[in-house]
Amino acid sequence: MKDLIELYLTNVIEDRYVEDSRTGLKKLIKGSRKKKGQDETRRTLYGDAVRVLGHLPAEHITRKDVVQLISDIVARGANVQAGRVLSELTLAYEYAIGLERFKEDFANPALLAKSSLKQARLKLTSTKGTRVLNDDELRRVLKWLPTSGFSAKHKQVLMITLWTGCRTGEVCEAKWEDINLESRTWHIRQSKNGSERYVQLSRQCAEFIEKLPNKHLEYVFQIEKSGKPLLQKNITECKWRMKNPEKMRNKQTYRPEQLWLNDIADWNPHDLRRTVRTGLSRLGCPAEVAEAVLGHSKKGIQGTYDLHSYEKECSEWLQKWADYIDPFLEKRELYFWAK
Fold first, then answer.
1. For the domain bounded by 2-119, which CATH number is listed?
2. What confidence tens digit (pLDDT) does each residue in 234-248 have?
């Protein structure tokens, strides 16, 4: 299975060099995904499919094996990840089948599993979020966060998300070279919608980032062993472990104060972004400024004629937001997170 996935990644998804038979020179063949998509696809397949099934012969994988793999991913609360793994695994098998790597009567087990999962009505897509933390809940979360089972890096990512309204994935991939603490800006060179933007940092956020360690590394939240940034899914997986300690296979234990908060309605890290947007509206922030804070592209006629970046306005309102939630934070805990 590992070889099949590697064949799919290197021959279809990723850029590769081939030797020109006439000139002998190496020529770049672009992959079917952009660089970020190439990395994400490799992480998606290796993080689950290769980890669980990689040691088995590809021709011996059954529909049941794939269904179990996808069901386990769903069980940890990663429905979208489950859908991605199934989709990529299906394509990997289809590619190998097209190259006649299997017998003529071989059936794609991932495609069969997709049919079974559809019959079982197992949801493999995200549900449109509506969860927003009210002030009491936000105060409760911020009191719990320093003692939670999240790692120091996880806590730091969540705090910067709460101050900026950025996606947790964007925060995880932030580079030191893109952060200017003097002007209090963070340059996101390519956002989810493909455009670049400058995130305005409140005084509190800039001071917090100033205290973070490892400024000699490339990424603000870099994993030193791999040299790569922290993965957003690691935060989601950590939440699942805190919420379901009894399902942990490696017997990892948490102290009571580290366990997930069960005395308020469930929430996800991405809900902090929605909380920022809703909070800005409650403070009176104009809709166009609040949307600019989130980095949303303008739609329709407005997107055609209103090309203003609203950077000054974003700075003003993010500072108001930071000042508003300041009473929810204890300074002692703030420095603890920054260690």
1. 1.10.150.130
2. 998 899 889 988 877
Q: Give the residue range(s) of CATH 1.10.150.130 domains in the chain.
A: 2-119
pTM of the model: 0.71
pLDDT in tens, 17-36: 888 888 888 888 999 888 87
Averaged pLDDT for residues 164-177: 95
CATH 1.10.443.10 at 135-337, yes or no: yes
* Sequence ranges of the chain with CATH classification 1.10.443.10: 135-337
Total number of residues shown for the chain:
339
